[in-house]
Design brief:
This protein has 534 residues and is of the alpha+beta class. It has helices at 3-22, 52-58, 110-124, 128-132, 176-180, 237-245, 259-265, 299-308, 311-318, 349-358, 381-396, 408-417, 434-437, 439-442, 462-471, 478-494, and strands at 32-36, 66-69, 74-77, 80-85, 91-96, 135-142, 145-150, 199-205, 209-214, 228-232, 251-252, 271-274, 283-289, 323-325, 370-375, 399-404, 423-429, 497-503, 507-510, 513-514, 531-532. 50% of the residues are buried.
Length: 534
């Protein structure tokens, strides 16, 4: 069974579960769905950053040209009611839906689409260049028609129009100074959104909550079913779990609860604990490493760090079995692109010490070879515990690690704007194709200050650049598979990051919540079909 069929089969199972849970009942209108996640979003558009807390909430506010169905992410009409593709796969023509309005009442037009792609996504979204780098021109012959002309075929082009990937942004939501001075990520609209989505901004009290309210002018008749969506900010993981257990919060998405609490909540009858609805993401965790200076610029040092970490123990002890040891940059759940010949990373602290000696870093006073700083992704307690485990393991081979803690905004600035770090834990999504989800972290053109979840490491390998360039222009088949195998083998050898584990997302929600799992990125869907059983 290939990746696509595997995902479709998984979705079929999920749909059956959902149908069984909902029974024959019709959706009910009204109520507030409350969810909890930590940390609090730093902005309300993925143009600012694609961090998980931002993606979860912004996709209820902003939409894109297409929506997606099933774990296989089959495209279906969204803001574009139809589309056609030329026989040579070089021209995509989208017909926009008439009568769609922005939250401030102004009409959504083809000019907004061109602006969103050409001025915003291409220049500021972390995957914008991947999706639209081959676009030669965007034409808008009338207010409801958009024509993309490509320089070369882009096999994944229809995947680009997810709300988290290419949100449609209103041209009138930005000032001329925002664009001219390249201050798009700091624009007012990042905090005060104007979308076309089923929900619009009502209130944001920093450190407490965000409330979205029903968009009465939404273009889908009768939707959304919910009156409101509310994010409740609860920094403590146990407090989040208790809030879900007591019914004070309806949903904890994307592993928002500590793994130990998730295990406990699996036995609570009022709750659903599900791993479905994230099949299209493929999250991969690694240690992001700053390669600009020694000792981390020496591959032998990075190999030593890799050998000092027991990935199976990480999975079993820190993550309570939610995941599996990584074998490279592509997740093993994507057999169409994963190189199955790759062995597991070796755990060998003794060999790690030999490598450090060979690299010219012998133990000195106190048994310390050198010192490094470590940041951790500020997503909760398990990330802290993982950071402590890594600090201990590296200490055993003579690397003294100082762990530094900053909030989400500070972490993004330190890693992606200031490049002021030695190494940090992190994860990114593979998505369904390495060109979409893997390329941005390892190609040299992604070395850009301020571009979050891109190549902060300063990794540059012309062969890797060339392989990614070739793979982006040809369809799946033996030639493309050979390219992906070589990419994975090079990145395993170079270790621009220390690949750790393939993590799994688990969602916990109250049984009264219906219609939540709809595709492979369900928590990034717009929730216009979610309803509460009363």
């Amino acid at each position: 069974m290939d990746f696509r069929n595997a995902m479709l089969a998984a979705m079929a199972g999920a749909a059956m579960i959902a149908a069984s849970a909902a029974g024959a009942q019709q959706p009910q209108t009204g109520g507030t769905l409350t969810y909890t996640f930590h940390p609090e979003p730093t902005a309300l558009s993925t143009i600012s950053t694609t961090a998980v807390p931002v993606a979860i909430i912004s996709t209820k506010l902003y939409e894109s040209l297409l929506e997606y169905e099933g774990a296989g992410m089959t495209p279906k009409p969204g803001l574009a009611e139809s589309w056609s593709i030329s026989p040579d796969n070089l021209v995509y023509t989208f017909k926009l839906r008439s009568g769609v309005k922005w939250h401030d009442g102004k009409p959504f037009t083809s000019d907004d689409v061109k602006f969103s792609v050409q001025e915003i996504a291409l220049n500021y979204h972390s995957r914008g260049r991947t999706y639209f780098g081959a676009v030669d021109s965007i034409e808008t012959p009338d207010a409801t028609t958009v024509v993309f002309k490509l320089k070369q075929p882009v096999p994944f082009f229809l995947r680009a129009f997810q709300a988290s990937e290419t949100p449609m942004m209103p041209r009138h939501g930005f000032t001329e100074q925002d664009i001219a001075e390249k201050r798009v990520r700091q624009a007012r609209i990042m905090q005060e959104p104007i979308g076309t989505g089923p929900f619009k901004m009502k209130e944001w009290r920093r450190g407490s909550h965000i409330i979205l309210e029903r968009n009465p002018d939404y273009w889908k008749p009768g939707k959304p079913y919910l009156d409101q969506v509310a994010l409740r900010v609860l920094p403590d993981g146990v407090a989040r779990a208790l809030a879900v257990e007591k019914g004070e919060v309806d949903l904890a998405p994307q592993s928002a609860l500590p793994p130990s609490e998730i295990q406990r909540l699996r036995t609570v009858p009022s709750l659903v604990v599900s791993d479905d609805g994230s099949e299209g993401l493929g999250p991969m965790m690694w240690l992001e490493v700053n390669l600009r200076e020694k000792p981390l610029s020496d591959v032998r040092v990075r190999q030593a760090i890799s050998m000092a970490i027991d990935r199976k123990r990480l999975v079993d002890v820190i993550w309570f079995g939610a995941g599996k040891p990584a074998r490279g940059p592509v997740v093993s759940g994507n057999p169409a692109h994963f190189d199955a010949s790759l062995p597991e990373f070796e755990y060998n602290p003794q060999r790690a010490q030999q490598l450090l000696d060979e690299a010219g870093y012998p133990r000195r006073q106190g048994g310390v070879r050198f010192r490094l700083t470590q940041n951790f992704l500020p997503y909760g307690e398990e990330w802290v515990r993982q950071g402590e485990y890594i600090r201990q393991e590296l200490g055993r081979i003579g690397i003294q690690v100082e762990t530094q803690s900053v909030d989400m905004a500070g972490w993004l600035r330190r890693i992606y704007t200031d490049w002021d770090y030695d190494f940090t834990s992190n994860f990114t999504h593979n998505y369904s194709d390495p060109t979409i989800g893997v390329q941005r972290a390892f190609i040299s053109t992604s070395i850009q200050k301020g571009a979050s979840f891109s190549n902060s490491m300063n990794y540059s390998n012309p062969r890797v650049d060339e392989l990614f360039r070739r793979a982006a222009a040809i369809p799946d088949g033996p030639e493309r598979k050979a390219i992906w195998n070589e990419v994975q083998q090079i990145l395993r050898a170079d270790l621009p990051v220390i690949f750790l584990i393939e993590i799994g997302f688990t969602h916990v929600w109250n049984r009264r919540v219906q219609g939540l799992i709809v595709n492979g990125i369900s928590m990034y869907s717009n929730w216009d079909s979610v309803w509460l059983q009363r």
